[in-house]
Design a protein that fits this description.
The complex is a heterodimer of chains A (261) and B (361).
Chain A lengths: L1 E10 L2 E11 L4 E5 L6 H8 L7 E6 L2 E2 L5 H5 L2 E4 L11 H6 L16 H11 L15 H14 L4 E5 L7 H12 L4 E5 L3 H7 L2 E6 L2 E6 L1 H4 L2 H8 L1 E7 L6 E8 L8
Parallel strand pairs in A: 3-8, 3-9, 6-7, 7-8
Antiparallel strand pairs in A: 1-2, 1-4, 4-5, 9-10, 11-12
Helix pairs in contact in A: 4-5
Chain B lengths: L1 H26 L7 H11 L2 E5 L13 E4 L8 H36 L11 H14 L10 H20 L7 H24 L5 H9 L7 H20 L1 H7 L3 H6 L4 H23 L5 H13 L3 H25 L6 H18 L7
Antiparallel strand pairs in B: 1-2
Chain lengths: 261, 361
């Protein structure tokens, strides 16, 4: 459960998030959508405890994020980054085992549930078959699944995903989001693809210029007027005949006047 | 716990190698001593505390009242004993301690900076030690608190590290990129101070140059043991942070999201490796390439996991420097070991570079 209230974040003196309030219930799958520079990654960073904030509060499971140690926070929230530099020779299993870091004792190295959690995470992300390969040898989509496996190995109630499908082909996009949507964990994901967000997420949060424009079901939030205003492009909103979910098609670029970044 | 058994067997193998290198090295020199004789000399020198004499002075200085028992009593030529224990062992102990220290510090710095060119002196530690040592040689009267050359070098090393850390830290955060640049700038500045001191060194220029080249023959066995003890204790501390260092290889944001207290961990790693490097440089001067080459070579063999890389690098560094110093002192003209490590290390590094083995961590 995530409670964000009046959150403001400044970067280099510029306000990149202004007065954002949002609650995410246990087990929900919420998508953050919006144009480039809207503040999606910043919002994820604030929940993940990576940023200092100018104002407001962010609480996970009832406790203010800033009051938790890195270890305590890592037992509640796991982040799947957009990309990670794997320029070295760790095996897939080594990387997934890093997800057990918050549970391991520094002196004895003990983590009784660790081995089972790692195997389960490898299994759920279908990465077991290349568990002993070097991460440097994997494709972009495979790396993404390894990072997801690491987050699952953290055994946390809340997952944050930054563009989980950005580098994936359509097959892996659908497989990844199928997997994520099937999780019982609370998930907040920044997603560029509005159709995928509409298809998989319980609710969407439309961000623009650092503030929340609309929150609700995809069908309620994705209206042509609102999307044209936020993205600065003409769109047609319809229904996907195959999935029965909302589909958004950009038709022609109009003014970019509303884009301040 | 796969890594534990791997680490245990690799550490055992490298410990055996180190003992072997030490025994062979102690036999090499103007007077040749066979390895069996060297082993007997070492065995004879082993003494265990066996009891305490009840004397009036025992309370004032209890360590003098300890009775030692030597379990071995092999028959060895006393000349061999003297050569091995008095002449060669102090230098070998210095080589092992300094090699252990520099390789361990280099491993940590390369991991922390995620930079294959990082070495133990990257945050100015060696440059600071040089200023301290050269100042002690050139102007011994000017040093407060009766600091000797070694203490002066050690203090110089730590002051440089603290200054670089303070410059690079803002708002409780120390970005490694800033740390790297601050280190380069401070090293350049300290290099100019050293150059100026050399200009003013007059008659002691030979001593200054000798110190700066790196050498292992000037330390007493007690000094070597102090450096070795400090390094060993701090490598144990660093080992407890090996997993955090692994996570840091994926980037600081990633490390934080798996529960690493990033800034605290960086502070521990920097402090421990700076002290280790300072303790090494204080007795040996600046010996290049050990802290750069040995971690790279071991990374190729055992992989990037610091739980196995750190202890194996340290032990291999000890063997490497003892072997290099043996080479340095057994040629027709005795050389400072720094020349040998650089002459052997640089081509080896270029070889790895051409094989693209060290292009990344």
């Amino acid at each position: 459960m995530i409670d964000i209230d009046g959150l403001c974040v400044d970067r280099s003196g510029v306000r990149v998030l202004a007065d954002v309030s949002l609650s995410v219930a246990d087990g929900e799958f919420v998508a953050l959508v919006g144009p480039n520079g809207a503040g999606k990654s910043t919002l994820l960073g604030a929940v993940g405890g990576h940023l200092s904030r100018a104002a407001g509060s962010v609480a996970v499971d009832g406790d203010e994020v800033g009051s938790l140690s890195a270890r305590a926070l890592a037992r509640r929230v796991a982040t799947v980054p957009q990309e990670t530099n794997f320029g070295f020779d760790f095996s897939v299993r080594d990387v997934v085992e890093m997800g057990r870091h918050p549970y391991r004792s520094r002196f004895s190295g003990d983590d009784p549930d660790g081995a089972a959690a790692v195997e389960r995470a490898l299994d759920r992300t279908r990465t077991t078959q290349f568990a002993d390969r070097s991460v440097a040898s994997l494709s972009g989509g495979e790396k993404q699944r390894v990072l997801l496996a690491r987050a699952l190995a953290q055994s946390v109630p809340t997952l944050l995903l930054d563009e989980p499908t950005a580098s994936l082909d359509i097959n892996h996009q659908v497989r990844t989001l199928d997997l994520v949507a099937g999780l019982e964990e609370t998930v907040v994901a920044a997603i560029h693809d509005l159709d995928l967000a509409a298809r998989y997420c319980d609710r969407v949060v439309l961000l623009a210029d650092g503030s929340v424009q609309a929150v609700g079901t995809p069908r309620a939030v994705f209206t042509a007027d609102r999307l044209e205003r936020v993205f600065g492009v003409d769109v047609t909103v319809g229904e996907n005949p195959a999935t029965g979910t909302v589909t958004v098609t950009p038709t022609a670029g109009v003014s970019l006047g509303s884009e301040s970044d | 716990m796969r890594h534990r058994s791997r680490t245990a067997s690799a550490v055992s193998a490298l410990s055996v190698l180190l003992v072997g290198v030490v025994v062979v090295s102690a036999g090499i020199g103007p007077v040749h001593v066979g390895p069996i004789a060297v082993a007997k000399v070492f065995a004879n020198a082993i003494a265990v505390p066996a009891g305490v004499r009840m004397e009036a002075t025992a309370l004032a200085a209890p360590w003098h009242a300890v009775e030692w028992y030597a379990p071995f009593g092999y028959d060895v030529d006393p000349l061999y004993s003297t050569i091995v224990l008095q002449v060669r062992l102090p230098r070998i102990a210095a080589g092992a301690s300094v090699g252990f220290a520099l390789a361990a510090a280099g491993t940590v710095m390369q991991g922390l900076f995620r930079n294959p060119m990082a070495d133990p002196s990257i945050i100015g530690v060696s440059s600071g030690a040089s200023v301290g040592a050269v100042a002690a040689i050139v102007a011994p009267v000017a040093l407060p608190f009766g600091l000797g050359l070694r203490a002066s070098a050690f203090v110089g090393a730590l002051v440089a590290a603290v200054v670089v850390y303070a410059i690079a830290t803002e708002g409780g955060r120390t970005p490694v990129a800033t740390l790297l640049l601050a280190g380069v700038a401070v090293q350049t500045f300290l290099g100019s101070v050293t150059s100026y001191l050399i200009l003013r060194s007059g008659d002691s220029i030979e001593e200054v140059t000798y110190w700066l080249m790196g050498h292992l023959d000037a330390s007493r066995i007690e000094e070597a043991l102090i450096t070795g003890g400090i390094s060993f204790a701090l490598v144990v501390v660093l080992y407890l942070y090996a997993e955090d260092l692994n996570a840091l290889l994926l980037g600081e944001t990633d490390a934080r999201s798996v529960g690493v207290e990033v800034e605290w961990t960086k502070r521990i790693l920097l402090a421990a490796s700076s002290i280790i490097t300072g303790a090494a440089v204080a007795i040996s001067g600046v010996i290049g390439f050990v802290g750069l080459i040995v971690p790279h070579a071991l990374r190729l063999i055992v992989g990037p996991d610091h739980r196995i890389l750190l202890p194996t690098s340290a032990l291999a560094g000890a063997s490497f420097l003892v072997a290099a110093d043996t080479l340095a002192r057994s040629g027709p003209a005795e050389l400072p070991v720094g020349i040998v490590t650089a002459a052997v290390g640089a081509p080896f590094f270029l070889y790895l570079l051409r094989k693209r083995e060290v292009s990344e961590l």
